[in-house]
Amino acid sequence: MFKFLPAPVRGLISALLLTLNTLFWCWPLFILALLKLLLPFTPVQRALRFGMHWIAESWISINTFWMDLAQDIEWDVQGLEALDKQHSWLVTSNHQSWVDILVLQYQFNNRLPLLKFFLKQELIWVPIMGLCWWALEFPFMRRYSRHYLEKHPAKRGQDLATTRQACERYKTNPVAVFNFLEGTRFTPAKHAEQQSPYRHLLKPRAGGMAYVLDAMGEQLQGIANVTLHYPDGRPSFWQLMCGQIHRLSLHIEVLPIPPRFLGRNYSDDAEYRADFQNWINAIWHAKDDHLQRLQSRHQPNTPA
Q1: N vs C: which end of the chain shows fewer Cβ within 10 Å?
Q2: Coil, strand or helix: which one is 75?
Q3: Is there a domain that residue 213 lies in?
Q4: pTM higher than 0.85, yes or no?
C-alpha cells in the first residue's frame, strides 16, 4: 500500500502502526492479567490465559499486516506443514538479528501456540512491552557469571527453578516454548571472541533447552529446529520497518525428543550433561552446514 514511498517514510509509518497496535492491545491484556491475579482458580485462569493468548495473536496479526504493506518479501519457507497448534512444542533457532522475533511470529502465528521466549531479566523494564511479556508469562532469566556463582553458590540453579516454575504454568494450555540456543545475536566480534567452531553460528548453550525437557519433556510434541537465513545480509530492525528486506529463508526441521533425555537432571548428572551437549553440538554442526549451503545458493542482491 505504501511501498512506493521513500524508505524513511515507510519506516516512520511502520513505527507509528506498531506503536498504535501495541497501545491498543496492551490495555485489555493488562485487565485480563489483573483478573488472573485476583481469581486463582484453574478453570478461570485457563480461560483467561486463552483470552490473553488471543490478544497477543491479534497483535501479531496486525504486525504482519503492516509488514506486508511496507515490503514484498520473497519467502523461502519449508517445514510449516509438520506443525500444529493443538500440542506443546519446544522451538529453537539461530539468532541473526532483532528482526528474527517478528519474522518467527509472522510465520508461526496461528500455526503454533503462542511463542513464549526466554528473556533477560533486564527486559522486564522495557516500557509497556516488559509488562506485556510479564502478563503473558514469558520466563525472565537472570544470568550469573561463573565468578559470581563462586561467591554466591546459593544462586546456582536459579535458572532451573525459574524454568520449572514457568513450565508448570504452561501445563494447562498448549504452548510453544522458544529458546535461542546461542543466547545472543550473532556478530563477527562475538564469533571471534568465542572462537566458535562454527562458520555461521555462535556456540550453543544447552542448559536452557535441557531445563525445559526436564520440566515438561513428556508434554512436548517435539522440537521445531528453525534455521533462519537472510540472503542479502543480516538486517536491522529499522530496515524491516523501512521495507528493505527482500529475501528471507526459514526452514523448520521437527526433531523427536530422545527418550533418554526425559526425567534426567542436567545440573547434577554429569554423564547426561555431556551426552546432551554432544547431541546439541551435532544439531548445531548440521545447522551450520545448512547455512553454508543456503549462503552458497543465495548470492546477495544489490538493494534497489
Answers
A1: C
A2: strand
A3: yes
A4: yes
